[in-house]
Design a protein that fits this description.
The chain is α+β, with helices and mostly antiparallel strands. It is built from 8 helices and 19 strands. It has 3 domains: about 90 residues, Dihydrodipicolinate Reductase, domain 2; about 190 residues, no CATH class; about 80 residues, no CATH class. The strands form 5 sheets. Strands 5, 6, 7, 8, 9, 15, 16 and 17 form an 8-stranded mixed β-sheet that branches. Helix 2 crosses helix 4. The chain starts with a helix and ends in a 5-residue tail after the last strand.
Amino acid sequence: MSKVMSAVAKGSTSGDSSSDGGWSVQTFVLETLNMMGAVVELIDWGIYNVLLPQEEMKRITFYPEIAQERDDCELVTFGTPFLESMLEAAKNCGKLQVRRMEMRSERPQNTDAKLVNLVHFVKCKPPKTNRSWLEENLLLLCRFIVTYQTDEVEEDVAAALVDLHTLADITHLVPVLDNHWFTVGSEEVTTVGQIMTSRENREDDIGIPHPVPSPFALEAGFTRASEIIRPKIEKRITWIQAQNRLQLEDELAKSRHYYATTLSKLMGQLQSTVDVTRKQRIKEKIEATQRDRDLRMEDISRAYNVTADARLDSAILYRVPVASVEAHVQKRTDVFPYVFRYYPWASAWSPVTCPICHKLASSLKRGAAYWHCGCED
């Protein structure tokens, strides 16, 4: 985000493509296209072919003289639609903040006893610790703005905290994170949706090594965060529907009474009329009133339907220490390894999750390739 803002700041100084402003616009646009996953090809001096993710091909240039000579080139400069679209895309791409926790890593005490409590549902022998190590972990905090559409529009905020290593839901630890100090750093975005830590082990300022795992897919974290907030949204929809039910029934009752009264009057007129032409007109009125009644009832019911739309408002990537403990868990005669994760900054263990669906495990079964909670049955 800092690169984006600096490019915009420089670009605002001048509209001349040969000046620092023009060069900043070019740098900003090309970096934003890279973040979007667009394919950019330099086909001639100052001319680029751009294939956007939506498979829309554009030919752009940052030089007014080229745009004047070639009708097939779209000029990208201040105030042009293409630059405005890149600014909007940069806002969306630049919402990821990165914070690093400065604290000492430490291994948990009385590990074996605590592991027994974590896997109490397995009904097995106490897990045997095989090895433990310290590393740096990535947590993704996503905050969503949820808009509920009914007879009124209502907005709410939903948050989800995901351990990007296991995709476990640890939202309950958000208040603990708020009690710590962080330093703001920059991360190298290697490909769309991935963020890479240093490939080499490093020593932090207190001399504790942090083995670095493979790249974490941010997209998987966002998807998992969306899954986490879904039950909260459904619960809120149910609550709104309950609040609206009395008002909905009142509106329907009023409409039923109105149309019942109107149709009763028309039926009375129909029965008391002997004129054929007048009877036909009254019948047409009755049919029109019945159609109007049905449409009105549908409109009232639709007005009180509750729909929800969730959009990502902000995301924070936390770099925090974690202690990993590999233990052998035995169920009957089967023995399998499981890596438990301890967060020293929260004095808490990560919940035991299914490696397949990443949800809380209430049981463990042997699958074709992995142990799972029963989700593969």
